[in-house]
Amino acid sequence: MDKDLKRFIAGQLRAYRRAARLNQAELAERIDRTSEAISNIERGKSLPALDTLMAISEALGVPIREFFPDQGFDDDKSPNRLRLEAEAQATLRSLSDERAKIALAQLKALASA
């Protein structure tokens, strides 16, 4: 479970950081941590302490619940799939309502093709 949680948080952090258009060093500076610490979290090498996760959440403007899975993990999903889903979710959240509606229509069209 610890490995899965590390992988999940890594994907979420990377996706939300990129959506915020920050590099690892910029995020690290905002939360008073090292870029190496951010890199280790994003690579799933370390699990952040709660205070670090709270600081990341605040710096990225993302509710802390986004760093915890809703219903456990799907063991059939690859790390790449988890990363892609987290990145898609972060990108969708960054869109205006109208653009999100268009993006959803495009995703539905792809899914039915």
Automatic annotation (TrEMBL):
Keywords: DNA-binding
Stored CDD domains: HTH_XRE
Start and end residues of each HTH cro/C1-type domain: 13-67
UniProt key word Protein biosynthesis: no
Highest taxon in the source lineage: Bacteria
Entries under PROSITE patterns matching the protein: HTH_CROC1
InterPro entries membership: Cro/C1-type_HTH, Lambda_DNA-bd_dom_sf, TransReg_Diox_bact_type
GO MF assignments: DNA binding; DNA-binding transcription factor activity
This protein's record includes keyword DNA-binding: yes
Name of the protein this chain belongs to: XRE family transcriptional regulator
Source organism per UniProt: Paracoccus siganidrum
